[in-house]
Structure formats: structure tokens, C-alpha cells
Amino acid sequence: MGNPPVIELRDVSLAFDEKQVLSRISFQVDQGETLFLLGVTGSGKSVLLKLILGLIKPDSGQVLVDGRNLTPLPEEQLDTFRRRMGIVFQEGALFDSLSVYENVAYRLREEGVTQEEEIERRVREGLRLVEMEEAIDKMPSELSGGMRRRVSIARAIISGPAIMLYDSPTAGLDPVTSYTIDTHIAQLRDVEGVTSLVVTHRLQDAYVLTNYVFSERKQALVPAGGANHGGPIRLTRFLLLRDGAVYFQGTTQELAGTHDPYLLKYLA
After folding, report:
1. 44 and 241 in contact (C-beta within 8 Å)?
2. Per the domain annotation, does 3 fall within a domain?
3. Taking each helix axis from N to C terminus, what angle separates 145-157 and 175-192, rounded to the nearest 10 degrees?
4. Is 140 part of any domain?
5. Looking at CB atoms within 10 Å, which of 66, 80, 195, 209 has the fewest?
6. What pTM was estimated for this model as a whole?
């Protein structure tokens, strides 16, 4: 038998104050795959990320990571699975009272790394990846929204997570900064083989990450269909929620070729 999906949800339902938020959600994400979570505001996309992190538990169904059901696990056992994950929140979620250096180092200190030389090396490595090393001594208040988002990515990847969860990573950003963020997401996907879930309202992000791959040779995104693209083309799929349920799940080609009236309206 092959390896189990990295992430799998089986018939997951959840309600808050008698309001049904998710209804019998099922999907899986395999190693190195990228799944885009689409849907209008309030459809339950961010709630799915919290379920996968174990921050909330479903009313019914199973949430599995590497084949292990997280739902019945106590908090101390959930930490083992969370260490495999990095998350980038929409607003960056940096600690306002800590410098960029201390924000990125925070996870390492939590995991028990005490050698300051090692911490600094890894912090600089992470910031260098997102082109933010020059901001290492700045405070979050001195950074633009896009810069905070890039620091958040550096903090998320500093422990080498196998899974990345992105909650609207380019929301409210200008096109150039959004493209930069997309480049970093693609770099983790194509170079490190990271499994990704991306919540987004921006179909432009999905287009970029579906049609381009990161080339180490050129240190840039290049067309996925071109020769010498510099890495494997990894599977990308879409899952669209409507009223808390899965309305569509499929590949780029299936989404682009749809004749469904709701999907066409959403894609317009």
C-alpha cells in the first residue's frame, strides 16, 4: 500500500451556536500537492485550517494528518503534528512588541533551541529566502503589509515544515507584492516539496501557482509547460465551498471547462 494522504478530512461537520458552518466535508491532499480553498466570505475556508491545526474539533467526522485522526488527541499530542505545519495568517499575526528577528526566532525558542548562533543563522536563512534579511532589526510597525506577510512566511518555514497552510496570504496587497508572495509559495512547493493548502479570494494567485513553477536555476517563476522549468510540475487542485459544503472539487482543467452557472459567476 502507498503512503496515506498528508491531510484528509472525512465527513467533517461543525456548527457554532446552532449555525451549521461545515457540512460533511471530505477531501484529501497528497504529498507535494497544492489545494486551493475557494468560496465567498463566511463559507468556512479559514475554519478548515483551524480544524487541521487542531485548534477546534469537529462535531462529527475525522481530521487526519499522515493517516492519524487528530480529533480525539489531547493537546500535548497535537503539538507533535503542529510542528510539521507552518501557517501564514492573513494579517501576518506578528507580535507587535518583538522585532523581526525575535518574531521569526520565536518558534525555534518554543521548540527548545537555545544556541543563539544557531538561532541567528536560521533566522537569517529564513528571512533571506523571502528577501527580508535587511529588516531583521525592525519592528512590525515599521513594515508594510506585504513585508509583514513575508516575515510571517519566514517564521512559518523556519522549522522546515512539511505542510504549509496559507490563510489569504495576498489579501489587500498590490499586484507586485502579491506576485512576490506567490513566488515564495511556489519556491517551497517546487524546491522543498511542501504540501500546501491555500485559502484565497484572488483567482490571480491560483492562476500563477497553477501555470508557473519555481526554477532554482533562474530564481524565478517560469511557465510550467516550458522546457527547463527547473523542477517537477506538482499537482494543483481546487475545492470550492458553498454554504458550508463542498460544491466543486477538481483540477484546473475541470474548473476552467465548467459550465456550471454558479462556478461561472464565481470565476467571472
Report:
1. yes
2. no
3. 10
4. yes
5. 80
6. 0.87
Host domain of residue 110: 94-160
What are the angstrom distances between the C-alpha of 146 and each of 6, 24, 65, 255, 261?
Answer: 29, 35, 30, 29, 35
Sign for the CA dihedral angle at 91, 92, 93, 95 comes to negative
Show the DSSP H helices in 141-251 as ranges.
145-157, 175-192, 203-211
105 within some domain: yes
CA distances from 268 to 38, 204, 225, 261 (A): 14, 12, 25, 11
Give a yes or no: residue 112 inside a domain. yes
| Count of domains observed in the chain | 1
Sequential pLDDT tens for the chain (268 residues) = 578 899 999 999 999 988 899 999 999 999 989 999 999 888 889 899 999 999 999 999 999 999 999 999 988 888 888 888 988 887 667 889 999 999 999 988 988 888 999 999 999 988 988 889 999 999 999 998 888 888 988 898 888 889 999 998 888 888 888 888 888 888 888 888 899 999 988 888 888 888 888 877 777 788 776 544 445 556 889 999 999 999 999 988 898 899 999 999 988 8
Buried b (16+ CB within 10 A) or exposed e, 58-75: beebbbbbbeeebeebee
97: number of Cβ within 10 Å: 10
